[in-house]
Amino acid sequence: MPSYVSALHDPGLFSVDDWEEMLQPGTPLHSKLIALRMMQDNYGWGIDEFQALDKLWERESNWDYRARNPLPNSTAWGIPQMLGRYHSGNPERAWREDDLYATSPDEQIRRGLEYIATGNFGVSGYNFSTPIEALQHHMGEGTY
User: E-strand spans in 29-80?
Assistant: First the structure.
């Protein structure tokens, strides 16, 4: 499996023109770099899983950590567009704007990857545990 460092030189994933944005926290490319590293370090997922995650979160939020779901009454927020009851780890608690989740792209990515890897914390009834499976579910159901 290629390392995240070698992935940076893959023209299918990143270009030389992307380097400046990658170094600026809060930008979509910086968030992608963080996700790529977390995926490999924490879950052993490779480039194929990153490509699936990239498609999934591009569709969900364009990798914008401030993205809000446009649907009325939705509590989905951030890069992974997780509902408040899932990302807080407490089904009774929704997110608040002062939460670390609301202000930290890194924390959103960490929780989003955990959400995928653990089968949605076991509360949603969905059965997937990798970004490829989550993307397949999203393409079929419109949600993950």
Answer: none
Residue 35, token pair as written in the block = 């996700």
> Which residues, 6 or more positions from 69, have their beta carbon under 8 angstroms from its beta carbon?
75, 76, 77, 81
Which whole-number Å values give the CA distances from 103 to 28, 68, 126, 128, in the listed order?
14, 13, 27, 27
Residue 2 has pLDDT above 80, yes or no: no
Answer yes or no: are the C-beta atoms of 60 and 131 closer than 8 Å.
Answer: no
Closest CA to 8 of 43, 45, 34: 34
Round to whole Å and give the CA distance between 90 and 131: 23
Q: Which domains does the chain have, with CATH numbers?
A: 4-141 (1.10.530)
Tokens 């807080």 appear where?
Answer: 88
Q: Please name the residue that has the structure tokens 């490319």.
A: 29
- pTM of the full predicted structure? 0.78
